[in-house]
Write a structure and sequence with these properties.
By secondary structure, the protein is α/β, with parallel strands linked by helices. 28% of the residues lie in helices and 17% in strands.
């Protein structure tokens, strides 16, 4: 999905492209590149490189690359900015941080919960656009949290080839350990573990399965509210009035919404009041995985998705690198 979003406008603008997927999940991007070959795209216009972070660093530092589009963690995004500054001051598009949603007092709680659950747990939460921070009006937060947790508990966890499976495994043992570590940190920081919070047991114990997890009573200075977990973990943060959202940054590492921005659950006739103050590239209302795109801001990253380098095939070359 992300590779296609980056690739299509790059080609439409007459650029050549280098795709560099995560070393853990390269197969869909390889298939996309094969489709381009089969469709007759000239050799050298769409290129694919697979490898780890060292390869990504080499692309970012290369003086013949004029633009990089990166989707990934805030820490790696900072490294991309530094490498760009140390090379040829290439233009950057960065999609970083944690995507929030706002649940207003007059929202349809059942619909909002269903939308948050779908948007949060798609691909077991391993999606950069996953709704990971759910800001809920304090007057509805208990109702929302209870219904969200009950719905999460009902989802079938299992192998991806099982037609009844709703939530599949995480991508690796290392990532499973990271998710579990962050969940334990959330408990230690004082968040209320409402449901989940552990690896699957029984017949799934040997796999990389993690139970859908819902935290209540989360505050913006907690680790689980600031670091991207990239797993089936949802954090509910109450707010009192529209003026208390978006929250002010609490530490230099606070992650703001990336270009997907907040999903705001309100009646269509009532524009979301906090949206004008949201430091985000775009706003979705109501929930959608295809939001209006914009030029991000602050730690959301910034810039339209494009990357260029001079090439004999076209006036420009574009690089798309995703973590």
């Amino acid at each position: 999905m992300i590779a296609a979003w980056k690739l299509a406008p790059a080609l439409a603008a007459g650029n050549c492209v280098i795709l560099k997927p995560s070393e853990l999940t390269p197969l869909t991007t390889i298939r996309l590149a094969r489709f381009c070959v089969d469709a007759g795209v000239p050799a050298g216009v769409v290129n694919l490189l697979t490898g780890d972070g060292d390869l990504g660093r080499a692309l970012v530092e290369h003086p013949d690359v004029d633009k990089v589009s990166f989707t990934g963690s805030t820490a790696v995004g900072r490294a991309v900015v530094r490498a760009s500054a140390d090379s040829n001051l290439k233009r950057l598009s960065l999609e970083l941080g944690k995507a929030p949603s706002i649940i207003a007092r007059d929202a349809d709680i059942d619909a909002a919960g269903a939308g948050c659950l779908q948007g949060s747990l798609l691909n077991s939460g391993q999606v950069c656009a996953a709704y990971t921070r759910l800001f809920v009006d304090r007057r509805r937060v208990d109702e929302f949290t209870y219904k969200l947790a009950a719905a999460a508990e009902s989802l079938k966890l299992g192998p991806g080839l099982d037609a009844e499976t709703v939530i599949g495994p995480l991508v690796s043992s290392e990532h499973l350990d990271k998710v579990d570590r962050l969940v334990k940190t959330g408990v230690a920081d004082g968040a209320e573990l409402v449901t989940g919070g552990a690896r699957a047991d029984g017949s799934l114990s040997a796999g990389y399965f993690y139970r859908p997890t819902v935290f209540g009573g989360v505050t913006d200075n907690m680790t689980i509210a600031r670091e991207e977990i990239f797993g089936p973990v949802l954090s509910v943060l109450p707010f009192t009035t529209p003026t208390t959202w978006p929250p002010a940054p609490t530490t230099p590492t606070t992650s703001w919404p990336r270009s997907y921005g907040p999903g705001i659950s309100r009646p269509r006739t009532a524009p979301p009041r906090p949206s004008a103050r949201a430091p985000s590239g775009s706003i979705c209302s109501p929930f959608s995985m295809s939001p209006r795109r914009g030029a991000g801001s602050r730690r959301a990253g910034g810039g339209a998705s494009s990357a260029t380098r001079r090439s004999r095939h076209s006036p420009k070359r574009r690089v798309s690198s995703s973590d």
